[in-house]
Specification:
The complex is a heterodimer. Chain A has no helices and 11 strands. Chain A is mostly beta strands. In chain A, strands 2, 4, 5, 6, 9, 10 and 11 form a 7-stranded mixed beta sheet that branches. Chain A has a 4-stranded antiparallel beta sheet with strand order 1-3-8-7, with no helix packed on it. By secondary structure, chain B is mainly β. Chain B has no helices and 9 strands. A 5-stranded mixed beta sheet of chain B has the order 1-9-8-3-4, with no helix packed on it. A 4-stranded antiparallel beta sheet of chain B has the order 2-7-6-5, with no helix packed on it. In chain B, strand 6 and strand 7 form a beta hairpin. The termini of chain B are far apart. The chains are: A mainly beta, B mainly beta. The A-B interface holds A 4, 31, 41-45, 48, 56, 91, 93, 95, 97-107 and B 34, 41-46, 49, 85, 87, 94-103.
């Protein structure tokens, strides 16, 4: 069974440019999460989806970050415009339901110059 | 929300048991304890979770004290591939909202 797929794995952009990350969760998983991980820190939740509904986006900086999960499957996280402080690893995870264990993708490492 | 305290780093000899402690003295009666690990340059990986009773699976054992204020993750025969950051997490209200702390960096040495 395929795990959580993320692309791209690495992205380098200049500040003020837009960037988007894509996530394909494990088939059948209703819950999808986006996390941000700064160097040397644990992951921090940005947003959680139950099917296509964002049920917890309290930690998402909505002035520049946006996310969507069309048809309750794949998800895209976007940053526009990117700032130097956005350099981090962006992790996607999925679970069958919100109380089940989460399965993480390999992450996208973003570098903003 | 219940917070967890873990030692920042630990060493373990290859083939020996690795015992990783976690303190969660403010845990509520219905909150689960989860353990995840993160190998360098990979996403976190679920290991095990428990409520009151000790739990065991193919990866590890979880020992939770009777008062539930602390727990220990046991890797029975550590290998070099177990070198990783181990996170002990209490799910606040069993919402699935994992709050990762700094974790314990386990270095398994030959």
């Amino acid at each position: 069974e395929a795990g959580v797929v993320q692309s791209p794995r690495y992205k380098i952009i200049e500040k003020k440019q837009p960037v988007a990350f894509w996530c394909n969760p494990i088939s059948g998983h209703n819950t999808l999460y986006w996390y941000l991980q700064n160097l040397g820190q644990g992951p921090e939740l940005l947003i959680r989806y139950e099917n296509e509904e964002a049920v917890d986006d309290s930690q998402l900086p909505k002035d520049r970050f946006s996310a969507e999960r069309l048809k309750g499957v794949d998800s895209t996280l976007k940053i526009q415009p990117a700032e130097l402080g956005d350099s981090a690893v962006y992790l996607c995870a999925s679970s069958a339901t919100f109380w089940n264990e989460q399965f993480f993708g390999p992450g996208t490492r973003l570098t903003v110059l | 929300d219940a917070k967890t305290t873990q030692p920042p780093s630990m060493d373990c000899a290859e083939g020996r048991a690795a015992n990783l402690p976690c303190n969660h003295s403010t845990i509520s009666g219905n909150e689960y304890v989860y353990w995840y690990r993160q190998i360098h340059s990979q996403g976190p990986q679920y290991i095990i979770h428990g409520l009151k009773n000790n739990e065991t699976n193919e990866m590890a054992s979880l020992i939770i004290t009777e008062d539930r204020k602390s727990s220990t993750l046991i890797l029975p025969h550590a290998t070099l591939r177990d070198t990783a950051v181990y996170y002990c997490i209490v799910d606040p209200g069993n919402t699935g909202k994992l709050i990762f702390g700094q974790g314990t960096t386990l270095q398994v040495k030959p």
